[in-house]
Amino acid sequence: RREPLGPGRLEQALCQASDVDAQMLQLVGLLELSEDERRVRHLLVTLFQEVFTEFFPGCAIMPFGSSVNGFDTRGCDLDLLLDLEPTKSLQASTQDAPGAGSGSGAEDSILSDIDLAAMPAPEVLELVATVLRRCVPGVRRVRAVPTARRPVVKFCHKQSGLAGDISIDNRLALLNTRFLQLCTEADERVRPLVYAVRLWAKQQGNPSGGGPLLNNYALTLLVLFFLQTPHGPTVPDRAVVAGWDCSFPRDVASLEPSTNTESSLLSEFFHVFGDFDFPGQVISLREGQALPLPPPTAPETSDGLKLGPLNLQDPFELNHNVAANVNEKTASRFGRCCRDAAKYCRSLQYRHKSSKGRAWGLTRLFQPGAVEPGPGGRGPWFWEVCTAIAFILRDVLKCSCAAGKPPRAPSKESKLPVDSAPSEELPTESDVEEPSAAEPLSVGSKRHLPEATNGTTLPAEKRPRTNSPEEAATWSCAVWHRVWTGRRRVRRQLQHGDGPEGPDGDSLELEQKVSEAIVQQEGTEQPLQPLLRFEASARAAGTRREMRVLLRLVPSPVPPSPLFRDFFHFLQSFLPATVRRRLGQEPAGCP
Ligand code: ATP
Ligand code: MG
What we know:
Helix content: 25-40%
Bound molecules: adenosine-5'-triphosphate, magnesium ion
Distance between the termini: 33 Å
Mean pLDDT: 77
Number of helices: 16
Largest sheet: 5 strands, mixed
Radius of gyration: 27 Å
Strand order of the largest sheet: 1-2-5-4-3
Number of strands: 17
């Protein structure tokens, strides 16, 4: 049985690998589903099949997407296709010849007074939702989404904790799933690369929504496009689905090995897409090349393809732009993130294992905001602190925490390195003597003098003179749960609980469990709105003798609510202590 992937476990494991290639292989091993997890999914599919067969005789339920395409990760959703075509045929034959279908089951089921073939798609979806809701044990939160491009019924399964979607009419997805699967079988470098790119994109989350840069299917196609050889696929097996030519070779043996033998594919991926003209061409996996846009006389279409700031043609459904929902801002952000990542991949921190146990290689690449260089130089120490801040906010305190915009060059008027809110609404450096919601928290320091530090903000007069704010990092954060209330009590319960499951000596793990317990106490439903939103910006400051990182929080909206003030006061002691612990500067103990 595999250990659960607790906070920091992934980073710890990756840091111990010998080189980046080893990290990439390890990444797959750490993230992929275990045999037990696969078995649970299989059992669930079998259960669904049994229940649906009772209501829709002859139907088939088939998994697609990440459960079966080779890019599975722990807890990934369960995409299912419910194929009702056999049921419709069965029903038609029963209707045509009364009595002939006797024993088939169709006439005894709920279909006895429903004509499935004539039923509008939204009603079929509702019917499926009703069956799920009423008849599949353990299924919760069932919701039909008829307006999606591919309508689905969403559900959660209580015992396994899995979330999933059931599509009714999406046979193309089965084919593209098989296609992705084939690619993983054809070239063993595909999986590590896709896992690394997916996780990197997830951690670069969109500042406004916290979602990934591009969805996983689109990212996977980009990686495959990048890896495509000039020769393209060999003799394909013919298949036409929904009018689209979905032919591709099914036999791995018939594929030529890739001629791309570079060891540093990930860095090359970022380099290629960092300089890519996304709006000016169409990425075609079918052709294995980027195609020029159609002439300006047909601005909207290229064989029906909806053009936009990022044009990624589906390999089968050729008039579908997989990235059609990507706006200009996200497309250019994707390019910028790729450039930043490419730059980082050229650095020593990427290529060489740290002998001092610091984040290196993939570990740093996966930290939100950690490789975004922005103006001015930043020492590795600064990034370690930023990485630790993001870790505490996101993994320990369960906040959404997405890397923000690169900092604007400071202007003389505002004196502030913060770029996340109108400067006139923010207190300036001189305002911080009175406790203020936007007061910087001193969260990490690099002292060259053996002085003690108590981990809290120094009084203004003792605060070191700040140098020019040449180093900064920003995050957009949302707080979803009151993780700051009742921590002491919950911590005590967890520490003195008599079960063998109690957290061990890793006190950050304990802190994470405390947050989880508080979240659980609040109820199982994910709140629709966060309790608080704020922008956080970190900058390096101090003297040559003592460098420190100051973290400024700006609530949204300003002025801060009483709730924000509570949260801020909690962070004042919690964050410095836990960041130091994360950095290995302080022994474990309750903050
Ligand atoms: P994960 O669930 O871990 O994010 P996944 O590979 O299952 O990864 P999903 O986004 O769940 O990715 O997509 C599942 C399937 O849905 C894909 O294999 C593809 O068939 C289809 N799909 C998803 N997004 C698109 C899209 N933008 N255009 C076309 N098909 C898509
Ligand atoms: Mg999925």
